Amino acid sequence: MVEIPELGHVVDRRYRVRREIARGAVGVVYEADHGYLGRPVAIKLLLPEQRRLEDIKIRLIYEAQALNAVRHPSIVDVLDAGVDEAYGPFLVTELLSGRTLEGLLTARRKIGVEETRIIGLRLCDALAHAHSRGVIHRDIKPGNVFVARAENGREYLKLFDFGIARFERAGGRKLTGQGIVMGTPEYMSPEQLHASDDVNERSDIYALGITLFECLTGTVPFEGNYADVLLKTATEPMPTAQSRNPEVPADLSRAIATALRYHPAERHPTMRAFAEALAPKGGAAEASSLLSGPINRGAQPAGPDAAAVKRKFPRAPYVTPVRVLRPDGTSIDGRSEDVSGGGLLAVLTTSVAASELVRVRFALPIVGKIAELEATTRWIRTARGKDAVGLEFRSITTEAKEAIDRYVSAMGG
């Protein structure tokens, strides 16, 4: 079996790989073109070591079945699934343009009250629909919420990654076994942390409450590893969003507080009920653009003109893996969030120094070719163990400049 596809390789005789989008513990997501229709898609494949595990392979197919069962405007649309002779099982979904809510929060720390209400209402609607079809997501978090932009400039939300969902209609089997803890601890309900088999829609309500709490405050209620969060949820009082951010209205803080009750029976009974509590009392919420909003650079600017770097060039959301190569020979991995002819906004897992001269390696938009460009860190902001970094290109090849400019122009940047 082939390890991983490279640029130009074809999956299932029709999906030609363009570039890598994201990589996790189990799988890799690539941008690809449908060989006959020319349509760009996202294709998810398992990592080579995961393809040998039968449960993991079955779970990817179940994820496709769950997505097919819960089609909704705010849930990523599944297009195809199957098993390739070389690369194993695969899942094909629509290709989205924009960035994750996690990326937005890392760059800005928090977002506005009305924007948070709208995110909550749309996700409540999507999850209520999923629950009505027997699917419990079980991994709601900012990293699994995508803020996408259509060609007409309209922004919309897409919930994705149903990889650990519980789907009661999947041949009568569950996607995960009894007593198995899966998910991100900070967003997991107490019953999930205790590996209870009694996980239902109220667990999704809890995780959505944590996500909205973070949108409003820039923090999660309890941080740490699995053991830390398990202990804190059981022994410490749950903070309110208003206590962390006094600008949060009382009604919104109460709605989230109810979602975060320790005992499931004390939470909102359904996603519809949660939505009613989140809805503004004086009419429809009005929100500004999430993708075009200001970036909070925090207290670590690398120079007095750091803000001007982002204004010199039109930019567009662009998510792809990034490797920053430092002068001492070390490297830092992460992902881009924005691209322009002048630089990248990147989210990195390890700190870099202000005004540091580095080389940044990433896949160019449109052409998918790997570029390595000299850059300077112009501003840095640390949040939740990650650095949001503004990288200004010191030099750029003609090929890279043309590819980026074409992409930004096509995205309306």
Output the keywords:
413 residues, alpha+beta, Phosphorylase Kinase, domain 1, Transferase(Phosphotransferase), domain 1, Thrombin, subunit H, 3 domains, six-stranded antiparallel barrel, 11 helices, globular
Describe the structure.
This protein is of the alpha+beta class. Strand 15 and strand 16 form a beta hairpin. The two termini are 41 Å apart. Helix 5 packs antiparallel against helix 8. 28% of the residues lie in helices and 27% in strands. The protein folds into 3 domains: 85 residues, 2-Layer Sandwich (Phosphorylase Kinase, domain 1); 181 residues, Transferase(Phosphotransferase), domain 1 (Orthogonal Bundle); 111 residues, predicted glycosyltransferase like domains (Thrombin, subunit H), CATH 2.40.10.
Query: In which range does the helix fraction lie?
Result: 25-40%
Q: Which structural class should the secondary elements be placed in? A: alpha+beta
**Shape, please?**
globular
Biggest sheet descriptor:
6 strands, antiparallel
The first-level CATH class name of the largest domain: Mainly Alpha
Strand order of the largest sheet: 1-2-3-4-6-5
Element-by-element helix/strand order: EEEEHEEEHHEEEEHHHHHHEHEEEEEEEH
The share of residues in extended strands comes to 25-35%
Separation of the first and last Cα atoms: 41 Å
Q: Stretches where pLDDT falls below 50 for ≥5 residues?
A: 175-179, 297-310
Number of helices: 11
Radius of gyration: 21 Å
Number of strands: 19
Q: Topology of this protein?
A:
Elements: E1 10-11, E2 15-23, E3 27-34, E4 40-46, H1 54-69, E5 78-84, E6 88-94, E7 98-100, H2 101-108, H3 113-132, E8 135-136, E9 145-149, E10 155-159, E11 166-167, H4 190-193, H5 201-217, H6 226-235, H7 241-244, H8 250-259, H9 271-278, E12 300-301, H10 306-312, E13 315-317, E14 321-325, E15 331-340, E16 343-348, E17 357-363, E18 370-383, E19 386-393, H11 398-410
